Amino acid sequence: MPETKSPYFTGQWWKRTDVKRHLVLWALLTAIIGYVGTEVQVRAMGAPASKAMENVINLMRIFTWAAAPIAAFVAAISVGALMGKRHYGDNPPPEAEHAIKNSPRATALWIVTSALLCLFALVAGLIALQKDNEALLDYQAIKINVTGQQWAWNYDYPGSAGVRSAVLHLPVNQPVVFHVTSKDVKHSFWIVQMGIKIDANPGEFTETAVTPNKIGVYDVRCAELCGLLHAYMQNKVIVESKEDFDMWMANEPDTGKTTWTEEGAGA
């Protein structure tokens, strides 16, 4: 009777019981990690208040599902190792010489897959960044100076000699360009529900843009550790109709604290 060789030694790896078990685990864990990871992140981000935030959420969905098979593969190997049979004795098990770590093809596949995922993340991120920065070139955009200091934000508005507010007011569906700077240490200007965040550097101006598309009250925070009361460096942004915004601007007193310049040089 001819000897029946084990699939360990025939090269038919797909017939191995442990491989089949790992493939089933891989498929199940990919679905679980992709779905749960996406839903947890999206729910934690809250409802978007701008197209930029919608792009961020969509990007996180894509990145999570793209990474899910890799995370599931690692998890499947770990679970499979815990579920597998134990080997006792001084000699390694018969299949040890056929471990995946000794396979040049598996190593090459892992490297190529990782490189393609990194390239995909880079290209997708650059496309999303380009879309988010389109408003920087919009001639109809409102330009607002943002000044951070320990531990508060101040906003200077165009078209006036000295309107400064500690609460940001924005008209809905109107592009806005922020000129962001700091008076002391490094801060980071972050409008949470609108998905924009940029460093506020002492003595320098950085720019970011957004178009709020929902009326409401949203959060502004500092995203850079800036001192003892960093956690309290937050206030609100009020998104309102164009009419209400114009009325608010008209009723704001001239504080005499700042002068708007097109270059963002509020003082």
The average pLDDT score comes to 79
Helix/strand-derived category reads alpha+beta
Provide the β-strand percentage band: 15-25%
Strands side by side in the biggest sheet: 3-2-1-5-8
Estimated helix fraction: 25-40%
- What is the CATH topology assignment of the largest domain? Immunoglobulin-like
- Would you identify the CATH architecture of the largest domain? Sandwich
How many separate structural domains? Answer: 2
Largest sheet: 5 strands, mixed
Order of helices and strands: HHHHEEEEEEEEEEH
Q: What is the CA-based Rg, rounded?
A: 27 Å
Q: Low-confidence parts, pLDDT < 50 over ≥5 residues?
A: 6-10
CATH first level of the largest domain: Mainly Beta
Instruction: Give me the CATH superfamily of the largest domain.
Output: Cupredoxins -  blue copper proteins
**Strand segment count:** 10
Question: Would you kindly provide a written description of the structure presented here, covering whatever features stand out?
Answer:
About 0% of the residues have low confidence. Strands 3-2-1-5-8 form a five-stranded mixed beta sheet, with no helix packed on it. The longest helix is centred in the N-terminal third of the chain and has 33 residues. The protein is elongated and about 85 Å long. With about 270 residues, it is α+β, with helices and mostly antiparallel strands. The protein is about 40% helix and about 20% strand. The protein folds into two domains: about 100 residues, no CATH class; about 110 residues, Cupredoxins -  blue copper proteins (Immunoglobulin-like), CATH 2.60.40.
